[in-house]
Design goal:
With 380 residues, the chain is α/β, with parallel strands linked by helices. The chain is built from 14 helices and 10 strands. It has 2 domains: 252 residues, Alpha-Beta Barrel (TIM Barrel), CATH 3.20.20; 96 residues, no CATH class. Helix 11 packs antiparallel against helix 13 and helix 13 packs across helix 14. Bound molecules: iron/sulfur cluster.
Length: 380
């Protein structure tokens, strides 16, 4: 029997058939040209056909490396890049630079990169905004489909109303599932109602779920998603990912609940949003959701081995989401402060989370200046 090949799904209304495991270009910056070529070779051999990068990764290095690796292979793949330029002139220049670096005359998909606030959308749609360059590139056959990527999922239902899109890209993994319940509840249904293709990013939560690759893919592929852009940059990582996606079968609800319950990365600190501790006068799950938006619930006030500590420091505070979480917490702050002062008893959590410790830490984070714990070291 031959080797199993990476399964495919249809990318929404684009109709493109894409392998569920995508090659994300960001981490190709960190490895040499010949190794990128070996990775691409192996990825294609296993049935992979979705390769995604961005103009900004490594100042264009990711595109240049992938461009060299893809010589003679362009027809086999769905090739995707992104520009963060919000004005037409800059976007047009970057589209042309991407095509040159990737040694191709068209991109299957071009994404508005990192649309995380309303100002970005307004700039894109303004006269002389990037939307004009995207439309021109599509008219001239340089780009076949258009999409958006975002690190602030709450904004996406609105973004999908504003921009003319074929695909949307956002975080899909079981860690951030706990921090962004709006993804399964609002973002994914809105995307599907528009027949958009869904690109999931960070299926291993930026590598944080490295101990749980099989579980991470089991969970992520069970979500509303067509392809998972994954940042592997070694052959070992790639083989592990191929094995996980090839072994995937549709899990039932119990399997997904077991993954969330037993995940070592979630342990007895990360709130699973089960809702059982919600009180009539205080929405505790909401407070913990905002803590998740602040630092992905990575700082738990407990001692850590150096690699774990470093990983949490690197991955917790991203994309200015801390500032957004602090703003969203303001209506809850006074109520929580009073609650803590009164030392009111708290319900038991089915995941063994010490709610009084957690509530105290969450409150300190969300009332800090965004530099917690460095900025609040005396307070806990
Ligand atoms: S009971 Fe535990 S898991 Fe459930 S919402 Fe509360 S803190 Fe989160």
């Amino acid at each position: 029997m031959g080797e199993r090949r990476i399964p495919q799904r249809v990318l929404g209304k684009t109709g493109l058939k894409v392998s569920v495991l995508g090659l994300g270009g960001f981490h190709q910056v960190e490895i040499g040209q010949s190794y990128v070529e070996r990775l691409v070779e192996r990825y294609l051999e296993a049935g992979g056909n979705y390769i995604e990068t961005a103009r900004s990764y490594g100042g264009g290095a990711a595109e240049r490396k992938l461009g060299r690796a893809l010589v003679g292979k362009r027809a086999e793949i769905v090739l995707v890049s992104k520009t963060g330029q919000r004005e037409a002139e800059g976007a047009w220049q970057e589209i042309n630079e991407s095509l040159e670096a990737l040694k191709t005359d068209y991109l299957d998909i071009l994404l508005y990169h990192g649309v995380n606030d309303r100002e970005a959308v307004k700039a894109i749609l303004a006269p002389g905004g990037a939307a004009q360059a995207f439309a021109r590139a599509r008219e001239e056959g340089m780009v076949h489909f258009i999409g958006v990527s975002s690190h602030w999922p709450q904004l996406l239902p609105w973004v999908m109303e504003q921009l003319d899109l074929d695909v949307v890209m956002y975080w899909v993994n079981y860690l951030d599932f706990c921090h962004y319940p709006e993804i399964p509840q609002q973002v994914a249904p809105a995307a599907r109602s528009k027949r958009l293709g869904i690109i999931g990013m960070k299926p291993l939560a930026d590598g944080y779920l490295y101990r749980s690759v099989r579980e991470a893919f089991t969970f992520a592929l069970a979500q509303e998603v067509d392809v998972l852009a994954c940042g592997f940059n070694s052959l070992e990582m790639l083989e592990r990912d191929i094995e996980a996606v090839c072994a995937w079968t549709q899990p039932n609800v119990q399997v997904l609940e077991t993954i969330l319950r037993d995940a070592p990365e979630l342990g007895d600190y990360v709130c699973r949003q089960c809702g059982q501790c919600r009180l009539p006068d205080l929405d505790l799950p909401k407070v913990f959701e905002l803590e998740g938006k602040f630092d992905r619930q990575m700082f738990d006030g407990r001692p850590k081995e150096a690699p774990d500590y470093a990983l949490r420091q690197r991955l917790g505070p991203w994309f200015h989401n801390q500032e957004r979480a602090i703003t969203l917490y303001k209506p809850y702050a006074e109520r929580v402060r009073t609650f803590l002062e009164e030392s009111r008893p708290l319900p038991a959590c089915p995941y063994g989370i010490d709610l009084s410790w957690k509530l105290r830490l969450a409150h300190l984070k969300l009332t800090s200046d965004g530099r917690f714990p460095a900025g609040a070291a005396d307070d806990f």
